[in-house]
Amino acid sequence: MKSFASDNWSGVCPEIMETLQKVNNEGHIPAYGELDDPVTLSAITRFKEHFGQQSEIFFVYNGTAANVLGVQHLMRPYEAIISAHTAHMNEDECGAPEKISGSKIYTIETEDGKIKPNDVKPFLRSIGFQHHSQPKVISISQVTETGTVYSREEISVLAGFAHSNNMYLHVDGARIANAAVALGTSFKEMITNTGVDVLSFGGTKNGLMFGEVVVFLKPELAKDFEYSRKQNMQLHSKMRFIAAQFERYLTDGLWKKNASTANQMAHLLAAELQKIPQVELTHDVTANGVFVKLPEEIIPKLQKHYYFHVWNPDISEVRLMCSWDTTRKDIDGFIDALMMELLNNEQM
Amino acid sequence: MKSFASDNWSGVCPEIMETLQKVNNEGHIPAYGELDDPVTLSAITRFKEHFGQQSEIFFVYNGTAANVLGVQHLMRPYEAIISAHTAHMNEDECGAPEKISGSKIYTIETEDGKIKPNDVKPFLRSIGFQHHSQPKVISISQVTETGTVYSREEISVLAGFAHSNNMYLHVDGARIANAAVALGTSFKEMITNTGVDVLSFGGTKNGLMFGEVVVFLKPELAKDFEYSRKQNMQLHSKMRFIAAQFERYLTDGLWKKNASTANQMAHLLAAELQKIPQVELTHDVTANGVFVKLPEEIIPKLQKHYYFHVWNPDISEVRLMCSWDTTRKDIDGFIDALMMELLNNEQM
Amino acid sequence: MKSFASDNWSGVCPEIMETLQKVNNEGHIPAYGELDDPVTLSAITRFKEHFGQQSEIFFVYNGTAANVLGVQHLMRPYEAIISAHTAHMNEDECGAPEKISGSKIYTIETEDGKIKPNDVKPFLRSIGFQHHSQPKVISISQVTETGTVYSREEISVLAGFAHSNNMYLHVDGARIANAAVALGTSFKEMITNTGVDVLSFGGTKNGLMFGEVVVFLKPELAKDFEYSRKQNMQLHSKMRFIAAQFERYLTDGLWKKNASTANQMAHLLAAELQKIPQVELTHDVTANGVFVKLPEEIIPKLQKHYYFHVWNPDISEVRLMCSWDTTRKDIDGFIDALMMELLNNEQM
Amino acid sequence: MKSFASDNWSGVCPEIMETLQKVNNEGHIPAYGELDDPVTLSAITRFKEHFGQQSEIFFVYNGTAANVLGVQHLMRPYEAIISAHTAHMNEDECGAPEKISGSKIYTIETEDGKIKPNDVKPFLRSIGFQHHSQPKVISISQVTETGTVYSREEISVLAGFAHSNNMYLHVDGARIANAAVALGTSFKEMITNTGVDVLSFGGTKNGLMFGEVVVFLKPELAKDFEYSRKQNMQLHSKMRFIAAQFERYLTDGLWKKNASTANQMAHLLAAELQKIPQVELTHDVTANGVFVKLPEEIIPKLQKHYYFHVWNPDISEVRLMCSWDTTRKDIDGFIDALMMELLNNEQM
Within an 8 Å CB–CB cutoff, is residue D233 touching chain A? Predict the structure, then answer.
């Protein structure tokens, strides 16, 4: 059964499964990526091709850890993160940033999940005032939690603004591949060249089994991060199984293939939904998420065919996520089920 | 190439690889073990068969997390953990318990890595004295870091002592399967029936790819642990891939088969080593680790044939770990290499 | 020179200075309030007269500590505080609650600094959802940061709402005496009888030198708090000097005398200000703070006569705080200076 | 009644009481040491005279806070403190360093409470090993908890050792004045010139009411400490009352007068005790503490005359602390009581 609940309801793509099998066949390999474990070194080399030789690469277990540890490393507890109120870090990590880093999050209300320098400016007033947390890291999500995508120009402007105010720019890239496909850009153009300081590079939502990557774009920021990773319980012993996945992911455009499928299916789904008068798109579709208002009564019925999450119950808005394994047939099936439920609803 | 460095240098056993492939083929499955994900539920059921119906089961990523989060849930920051000085928690987690839980660790010097009630008693003096961390959790490792194994009776006595002093007993079971095989006992007899409160149940060192389990033996102790797991960055999205491994691991005695191999190979290795006059065993072999003193000069040379870790450089002691995939041929090869290096050494 | 900057710019009232001198003359007294230090015991007895015999009393150093430690003791790090966005805890403690307790703060935008059950309700949706911090403590300020005062009925309703949702109610009482005077009520009627769980009882802003009190209204909530106080660096060695101040403060209505003066002076100041057309009150005056809009140009000039803080620069709003030592002459002097600056301003 | 329990059982010396009265008479003064509060500025100036112009001065509430915050500012949570096992920080702060800084403490067993570079060396092996907390701050107590005193040479050697290993040296100076008197040295010679990085400068044990000082000897280490102090709940609002005490303390040799009295009385007490055959000194007396073994039976009886703490119950060792207000008459009274109890004991 397929769903549109989240891109982490899907399994692992065949190329990655094959890679896991292959790297398992290599017998004994040093644990923890230590002692020049060739699998880990090779994956790091691949990352440096995508992000530049100066980048520093650390594998962790999941996106929450990549976000929290990446940001924490750039700040002290009396410094603050600034993010959109809708940011995963603020909304969906059960207070992990606060507990793990000890830092406060200043949040910004947004229309579309994206923040701009002008949104951040009011917080600069706190600089130098000892009673206030000191703004230190601006964190954005690319793709945002509402499915929108920052342009390279927008990222570049935010990075410049951050740096000119003695702050850093972090990017939560749980869906960074979908953003790169949406923008038609490379990771280097979108992240390294725009001046981003640290990136949470995700893969699990795009066909991997587990693992996430903290990418420091400037080597001096990465100093001693290995100790932080260990202390924060994110150092995997059989490291090869994370490293090998990412090496394969960044080879022969696998990341792009998977994300392209997901994005295309989302566009197709949106196009079909727009034909239906009872359905209203709430955000433009750029990556692999489709946000629509549906008649409230049909939601639970439709969820029985294809599960999806209600996003904002106050306005009957739902989120439909496409994945690397979503097919045209899934779209057709969903549209059919929706039409049927709409019809049933009207007949009642 | 094989090594005796650690049981996490080995790969994943074939049964688990097959399971991962199989559970991947099941299409979409709810993330985070939510919405009655059948794979997660089924694995939990299997655990309850082994540990009792009242046990509560939570999957996390690794052993450090299982230790720290399991213990943290039973205490407040002003309460203390009591462990052997050699405990992994104290020695090899880069300060994770202190940072994540905020608690102090009181440590005990031991001969063999095992602690007894009499070792803990001096710390009871701190109870009620507001300037001292209050003893709350006794943590033991089963197998210990020096390869020794607590008997069921010893665990039972420690649990009783803990409870009669308003404390809890935690077991770091990174190698719990090796201990069960060594003792010829079930998990229930060794853990549930002895009165243990919380167990870190490991699998990665015995043939799994990733994942560890926090097992609360008393349901009231588990209350709200799901939030702690999430906040501490240990909730996996594609949960099925941890759950399925453990379900398979606990089925048809796979855990026992793997651990038996490792233990047998360690005994075989020890038997061979004891025949060599220049080699001295420093601990009895009960599980899958062999600790011996070697002539200092040959260590780096021998490591080039089969890598292993120096355990105590002051006395030229090394640790040789056997794994689920160690074979008689590996033992023979190691002994041959050792003999050759000893010979070379004497001729110099 | 006098100011209207804050009630902590004033010194210590004569009765307290005399008490400090007296308790100093008593020679040696056990440190840390231990060994039945009679001064500490006596102060605790006095508190119990005001708050009920079941209350539990702990002296700490300042208001931030009383807030953070009082609240922290009622929750785990994955649980959340809910407060007005303007709360001192959220705005002016440099992220202390987040760092010290590890908890997230959910904030509410308010008109007047006061929150109602309906403001809290949306956060209840997070209960049981493992990705969200779990609401646990509602924290209100009495007097609020905008000078308003909750009625006993309002506190009682909030406490009932909290309890019926498995939450607690905390009151930041940095200016609790001013509130009691404003409401014409006792502490017991306002706090104990309304169902409050923990109170930060302040005195420094009302004539004391240092010290603040965590008052648990229900003894079971106070369990082990002495260890938390010590671990969080808030246990004073020469405890008698905090205890004696509070005993005197709660004797012969000293708290009431000081707070009455401050409140009366605020009302007088407000009455005078309302006569001036260029001045606009932004909040009703109930306790000892007066919030007004002034012509922007005169603010820095007027601050040279009598210093005060700009509250909201966007609307040229300032805060004028009266203290236990504010006199009618101070009010007259301020009004004269204001009139002069208004005149100068118009002539320019 | 006098005691020999601790130098914090005594009250406040007359000069300080007078100063508190005087600074209270100055009317309104900016809170938090802000806006160029002249009292705070003047106290800082005085400190710079004693420690050098480059030193940076921060007032906090107590010694635990000075220790924890001073050390925390020099390290990240994955870095470790190294101290004697007997250090106050390790033994008597209820786990504050671990909770507040997140760091581990590596401890050293000592004869006399003093550590030497050779004691620290074994911990250097952990440097660069990602599973171990990274040694970062060596912390010593001057006077130590067993009453001994480091020579300037010893401090200098430790500082050099720390710096040459990329570490810092912290001094817990709860009794720093007693040490300076014992060594016949200035603070500058003992602390600044020996290369110490950060000092907890105590006064409460030597005649003050409350307050302690974090002295950074190198300005770059102090950067942003004001935010840490606030976030960790150690910023006093009526700052003048801490600042004025310390200014007076450092003026006209008050610190020296008080400490000299305490030290002299300790020497006198020790001299008298050495005349008694049933009493055995366990440490040389250098500062204001005397450690002796007494016949076990008489301890509780003697405590009723003059209270004191049992230090090591296993060997019937007690600690007798002298204070700024201890007199020859107190010594005589204590010796008389001791002789009487010894006599009674023998007659039983």
Answer: no
Looking at residue B347, what is its pLDDT?
Answer: 86
**Edge-to-edge order in the sheet of strand A168-173:** A56-60, A212-216, A198-202, A168-173, A134-141, A79-84, A104-108
**CA of residue A281 relative to chain centroid, distance:** 22
Residue C1 has pLDDT above 80, yes or no: no
Please give the mean pLDDT across all residues of chain D. Answer: 97
CATH superfamily of C255-347: Aspartate Aminotransferase, domain 1 (3.90.1150.10)
Structure tokens at A175: 């869906």
Q: Round to whole Å and give the CA distance between B99 and B94.
A: 9
Burial class (CB in 10 A: 0-12, 13-18, 19+), D336: exposed
Asked if residue C143 lies in contact with residue C175, where contact means CB atoms within 8 angstroms, the answer is: yes
Instruction: In whole angstroms, give the CA distance from residue D45 to residue D57.
Output: 9
DSSP A211-251: -EEEEESSGGGGTTHHHHHHHTT---SSTHHHHHHHHHHTS
Tell me the backbone φ, ψ of residue A292, rounded to 5 degrees. -140, 155
Cβ within 8 Å of residue B28, ≥6 positions away: A1, A2, A3, A5, A9, A10, A11
Q: Which residue of B has its CA nearest to C74?
A: B76
Residue closest to A337 by CA, chosen among A311, A287, A300:
A300
Question: How many residues make up chain D in this entry?
Answer: 348
Beta carbons of A96 and B231 less than 8 angstroms apart: yes
For residue B45, what pLDDT is reported? Answer: 98
Using the Cβ of A303 and the Cβ atoms of chain B, whether some distance falls under 8 Å is answered with no
Inter-chain touch A133–D235, beta carbons under 8 Å: no
Cα–Cα distance for residue pair D241/D61, rounded to 1 Å: 11
Q: Give pTM, 2 decimals.
A: 0.97
Query: Considering only alpha carbons, which residue of chain A is nearest residue B308?
Result: A30
Query: With 90 as the cut, is the pLDDT of residue A63 above it?
Result: yes
Neighbouring C-beta atoms of residue A305, cutoff 10 Å = 17
User: What pLDDT, in 10s, does the model give residues D302-347?
Assistant: 999 999 999 999 999 999 999 999 999 999 999 999 999 999 998 8
A7 touches chain B (CB under 8 A): no
* 8 Å CB contact of C77 and A92: no
Q: Which CATH number fits domain B12-249: 1.10.3720.10, 3.40.50.800, 3.40.640.10, 3.40.50.300?
A: 3.40.640.10
Q: How far, in Å, CA of D243 to CA of C300, rounded?
A: 28
Question: DSSP class of residue D59?
Answer: E
- Output the pLDDT for position A347: 86
- Tell me the average pLDDT of chain B: 97
| Calpha distance C308→D30 (Å, rounded) | 10
State the Cα–Cα distance between residues C143 and C120, nearest whole angstrom.
19
Q: Find chain C residues with C-beta within 8 A of A104's C-beta.
A: 95, 98
**Alpha-helix residue ranges (DSSP H) falling in C165-253:** 176-183, 187, 225-231, 240-249
Taking every pair of C-alpha atoms in chain A, what is the biggest distance, in angstroms? 69
Using a CB-CB distance cutoff of 8 angstroms, which residues of chain B are in contact with residue D92?
131-132
> What is the phi/psi pair of residue C152, to 5°?
-60, -40
Whether D102 and B98 lie within 8 Å, measured CB to CB = yes
- ipTM greater than cut 0.85: yes
Q: What are the domain boundaries of chain A? A: 12-249, 255-347
Q: Is C68 on the interface with A (CB under 8 A)?
A: no
Tokens 């309906």, residue located: C118
Nearest CA to A213 among A112, A336, A13, A70?
A: A70
- Contact call for residues D215 and D209 (beta carbons, < 8 A): no
* C140, amino acid identity: I
Q: Answer for the pair D193, D186: CB distance below 8 angstroms, yes or no.
A: no
CB-based contact (8 Å) between D27 and chain C? yes
